[in-house]
Amino acid sequence: MTKIFSIAIGALVGSLLTWFKAYHRAEVIITGNKNLLVITTITSLLTICNCLAAYYGIIMNNRKVLTMCALALWPLFALTASVGYLAYKRQLWNLRAKLGSQWRSFSYNEKLTIQNNLHCCGFQGPLDHPAVSNKCYMRSLLPGCLGKYYRFNYLTLKIAYIVSFALLLPHLCLIFISVLFSNHVNDKWNRDPPPVVK
């Protein structure tokens, strides 16, 4: 439980740093992969709450609380898997076309945010759906955003699905262990003296 709690704290800190734009490329993640960021934030918050409730159940020897925490691990498992699935699905099949479609659906401010952060202009060049600004105009020498945006998304999505899928096995082990403990906690748990060895 402590490992999952630590991982959830780390995921929440990473999500909050992204939401508050605490590092250089955070704006690109917020603009381009907001759905994954939202799911990651919600999953980490719910996991932290579930771990705290489980610690309460362990300290108070409360079987009902531990059972509810064991049941709550299944939807949390599904949320963790969904982050990996969405990232893998998006990264695997024709990411360039998906990014092009996404670029055309962006508002002016979203395009401008990505252009300013990646130091580029337009999607494939200054003539391809640019957000016109003092740095990005028709005869700008800045390259198109396709290359940088593609490489950034490819790496971000790959890290997201590898981390998400890597957490599934420990999560399943935790579910198995929590089911065992929730069924074996009663009023005498941890209070009886150990049996005498003959």
From TrEMBL:
Residue stretches spanning the membrane: 6-24, 36-59, 65-88, 159-181
Pfam family, one: Tetraspanin
Membrane topology according to the record: Multi-pass membrane protein
A Gene Ontology term for the protein's cellular component: membrane
Key words, A-Z: Membrane, Transmembrane, Transmembrane helix
Protein name: Tetraspanin Tsp2
Location in or out of the cell: Membrane
InterPro entries documented for this protein: Tetraspanin/Peripherin
